[in-house]
Amino acid sequence: MAQVSLPLPSLAEAAQLPHRSADPNPAGSLAKPRLDAAKPLPRRGLERLDLMLLCLESLDLNGGEALVWLSDSLGFSSRFPNRVELWKRRCHNPMRRACRRGELEPGDAEALMRILCGMADRLYPMLRSLLSTTEPAQLSAERWALFEARLGELLLERMNPRRSGVQKLLDPQEGAAERRHLVQSLAFVAGAGGYERLRASLLDAAS
Amino acid sequence: MLVSSPMKQSLRYQQLSCQLVVEGLPDLSAGHGKDDLGILTGWSLRWAGRPELEGQRDHLEALVAAVLPYARHLVSGLRRSFGNPSGPVWIEPGQDGAHTLHLVSRQSGQPTLDLQLDDAELADLVRVLDQFRLDPRLQLAMAVPPPQPLRPHELIQRLPLQRRLAAPLGGMAALALAAALAGLLAPPPLPAGRPLAPATPAQGRS
Question: I want to staple A34 with a disulfide (CB 3.0 to 4.6 A). Which of A17, A87, B137, B146 is the partner?
Answer without folding.
Answer: B146
